[in-house]
Amino acid sequence: MAHPLAGLRALIKRSRAENRAEHLTRSGREPGRNVMLHVTVDAQHTTPFREALIRDCGNQQWTLRVAPLRDSGRVRLSLYLPKADVGDAMHRLSQLTPDAEVGQVVEIPDAPSDAWRSLMQADAQGNGSRPKQAATRRADAPAGQRNGGSRVTAAQAGAAAEPSIETLIPAQPSLAQLLPASHVLLSLRVDDREQLFTQLSHTFETLCDVPAGTVTAGLTSREALGSTGLGQGVAVPHGHIEDLARPVAIYARLAEPIAFDAPDGQPVSDIVALLVPQWADSAHLHLLAEVAECFCDHQFRDRLHECADADAVCRLFNGRATLEHAARGDRRLT
């Protein structure tokens, strides 16, 4: 449910200092928890808001992602920032655009949680920006999967097809399901972001029959909206690709870190690149949330850096997915 901005300010009702004091009282530890919230504003306010965040929260780790809402002149901002800074950010936003609509403030978990995924999926389903297209694409997608599962032509989509094993691919695949050994690149040598996108695009072309130029354009256009660096040496470049039948992912570990305009200013060496179909908003958010959950765990990052080959990387992602599945089962039983 979206709240008017004034309503959200009423819910916060605390200064930055009071937020920190309350967090300490509740948790008994130093504040450092990040939160996520979605804000819908007129597109013209995006740049001023980003500049205000840079000016007012420049010493904090924050990320602002922008998704245009089709045929509306408005955009949805996905804002990740320290919990203690929410009040300041909302105050600045209210000065720029009082008619902003702000969604629920959600704490990003330290470890994977079923509730977090459910919330991200519900948010995507409630977006409503492409419901008719989504329904059509979902029905057509399995008919066109080929060569590991990506491209679908109009003829293939329109043709009647018998059920196949590919129809069993989950609508919301986990990151582990999208990362077989052939999708893992270790010690990748690139000098900058442009070279990285070129290398990733050629690999995606080999894996899923999408032209490298199309992939490069998708990754570059998304990056132009704001860096996909998450901080802690991690980036998740991603793009929507028309006629893609299902999500595709690559994990790349760079031989040398490269600059990525990450919110913490640090270069990146861990890359999770995602391509998703135009209709797959829910799967897109689901996967981005899973990447964030994985890499916010420093123990997971340390274990990942210890993996000496692609098979070890796959075992790590699969082991984490298995533990999360078991945890969901335990929660259902309690």
UniProtKB/TrEMBL annotation:
<dbReference type="InterPro" id="IPR016152">
    <property type="entry name" value="PTrfase/Anion_transptr"/>
</dbReference>
<protein>
    <recommendedName>
        <fullName>PTS EIIA type-2 domain-containing protein</fullName>
    </recommendedName>
</protein>
<feature type="domain" description="PTS EIIA type-2">
    <location>
        <begin position="177"/>
        <end position="320"/>
    </location>
</feature>
<feature type="region of interest" description="Disordered">
    <location>
        <begin position="123"/>
        <end position="157"/>
    </location>
</feature>
<dbReference type="InterPro" id="IPR051541">
    <property type="entry name" value="PTS_SugarTrans_NitroReg"/>
</dbReference>
<dbReference type="Pfam" id="PF00359">
    <property type="entry name" value="PTS_EIIA_2"/>
</dbReference>
<dbReference type="InterPro" id="IPR002178">
    <property type="entry name" value="PTS_EIIA_type-2_dom"/>
</dbReference>
<dbReference type="GO" id="GO:0030295">
    <property type="term" value="F:protein kinase activator activity"/>
</dbReference>
